[in-house]
Design a protein that fits this description.
The protein has 14 helices and 8 strands. It is an alpha+beta fold and about 375 residues long. The chain folds into 2 domains: about 1-85, no CATH class; about 95-385, no CATH class. The strands form 3 sheets. The chain has a 4-stranded mixed sheet, with helices on both faces. A two-stranded antiparallel ribbon has the order 1-4. Strands 2-3 form a two-stranded antiparallel sheet. β7 and β8 form a beta hairpin.
Length: about 375
């Protein structure tokens, strides 16, 4: 029995037949960037094998199916033979979205370094420590944010996440298992948490967390919920959340110094009015001091605003990329259905005006639905989209 792998016949919705003896798949693998029905045994020799694009019928004698939806690998399949979707995408991985996600990090990094450098110089003048000890300590402490136990114990509560209740987990567990299996991931690769909220929402956080609201649990059916969770897993597989978390961490000293400068401005103004109003020279000095503090505060705050605006702009690309990954996992239609629920609730509208677009972290829900449906109608868009 031959173990030759037949090339992918294309992604234009056609079917191509090959001798079954030319097909043998004993492990999860891909051709041309798409899952090739992993973990299916070889079909009988000399019988025609049909490569059926976009479907995954039950295994029958003489039929070998190629699907956009990777079937679940048997439990005895070695993990080394189960590539994650990040690898499954191969040359078609949307690296652009991951690279674009570092744009806000590039905005804040120079100002973060300037502030930590200044703090390091001040510390070096007071203690026998090198100036670089401050930025290094901040970077090392930031790395701990990506350590799974820290995210579960500290970051999840900060964003309002909690462990699912028994009833919630009874419903979520099979859905979560299905999503993880479709992505060829372990069930515990990411941590699922619930947020008590009246918003229909879910989001990926840090490098390990996926959070879903109680409103989403109450108003989405199982398939829709699976689509939403697959989308959030797509964010993690695209590394979109890593750069965002790093940006927020580097922004903290900038934000804190800005707040301190605003406080100093208020102190200078109050002191000037209360104690030196009788002296024109001291009044002028107080007002200049307050003006300098105000200028520093707004300059630093503008950096944070610029980083946020940049993050919102590149987030649109990340959203489309996560949608695409959910489609590749086989959850395109359920995700589109969940987005229709968002639209029905009056959310996810298109931002009007440049200010609104700068503040919008997601593209319009209707736009996402249209793109998902276009890919489902024409799977080749997964390559070119």
């Amino acid at each position: 029995m031959s173990s030759t792998v037949v090339p992918w016949p294309g992604s234009r919705g056609i079917s191509t037949s090959y001798p079954a003896s030319a097909i043998a798949v004993a492990r999860c693998r891909t051709d041309d960037g798409f899952p090739v029905n992993p973990c299916r045994t070889t079909t009988p020799v000399d019988e025609p094998a049909t490569w059926d694009i976009g479907s995954a019928p039950a295994s029958t004698s003489g039929v070998f199916s190629v699907s956009l939806i990777p079937p679940v690998c048997p439990t005895d399949t070695p993990w080394g033979a189960r590539p994650t979707l990040f690898y499954v995408n191969g040359q078609n991985s949307r690296w652009g979205a991951g690279i674009a996600a570092i744009a806000p990090l590039v905005v804040v990094a120079p100002f973060w370094f300037a502030l930590t450098w200044l703090a390091g110089r001040l510390l070096a003048a007071l203690a026998p420590l090198p100036w670089w000890s401050v930025p290094l300590a901040w970077l090392v402490s930031g790395l701990t944010l990506f350590w799974r136990p820290v995210q579960v114990a500290a970051l999840a509560p900060v964003v309002g996440g909690r462990a699912p209740t028994t009833d919630e987990w009874a419903r979520l567990a099979p859905i979560w298992t299905a999503v993880s299996s479709r992505a060829n991931l372990r069930d515990d690769r990411f941590v699922l948490r619930v947020i008590d909220s009246n918003d229909l929402n879910a989001f990926a956080c840090g490098g390990h967390l996926v959070l879903v609201t109680t409103f989403a649990l109450d108003h989405l059916d199982d398939e829709q919920l699976a689509g939403v969770l697959a989308h959030e897993v797509g964010h993690h597989l695209g590394l979109h959340t890593v750069a965002l978390t790093a940006t927020h961490w580097l922004s903290l000293p900038i934000t804190q110094v800005s707040r301190t400068a605003f406080a100093l401005q208020n102190v200078a103004t109050a002191a000037t009015n209360a104690f030196v109003a009788h002296s024109s020279a001291l009044t002028a000095l107080g007002r200049v001091s307050a003006g300098i503090a105000r200028g520093i505060a707004w300059a630093l705050l503008s950096v944070v605003y610029a980083a946020d605006a940049t993050a919102n702009l590149v987030a649109h690309r990340s959203e489309f990329d996560a949608d695409r990954r959910a489609i590749q996992m086989g959850f395109g239609a359920p995700l589109a259905s969940a987005l229709r629920e968002v639209v029905a609730l009056g959310h996810g509208g298109r931002a009007v005006g440049w200010r609104a677009r700068l503040h919008a972290s997601h593209p319009a829900a209707r736009t996402r639905i249209a793109r998902i449906e276009a890919v489902l109608r024409h799977p080749s868009n997964l390559q070119t989209g």
